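Form 7-S
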Amino acid sequence: MSEFSWTLPYPSPAAAGDGRRDGSHLWGRDIWLDVAAANGPDRVVTASGDWLLAEGVEAYRQNLIRAFITAPGDWATKPTWGAGARLYVKRQNTRANRDELVERLRAQAMRDRRTESVESIDVSWSNGTLRVHVVVIARGQIQRARRVEISFEV
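Output:
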């Protein structure tokens, strides 16, 4: 009696054809947005006329920034998506408002499947500007416990 054997290829980062072995392809790819734009996040166009893309951890970071500044209900297809940081710009700098915003930011970060935990959130108001600094621990299949810092102003 003869036995059959075969070898199945093991999926690896290099199997995607891009040669990346650091696991960055697992974080995704998205349109890069200039969050420092005066009129809100804006796309950046490359010299070839294409939109600049964010990949890897930067795509994850950009997605969290969009989730933090988007107000719930702004997207009809995702009515509960967004923390609504912009809604707090004109509010008074009270402990209750800070705590409410921090909790909304924490909940929104944890909704992303790439987030392991939220390490810290700092919010402050100054001269009509809201400053937000969030540190998350991101999960990944190749590299675990990656610390990602996110800062923005609205």
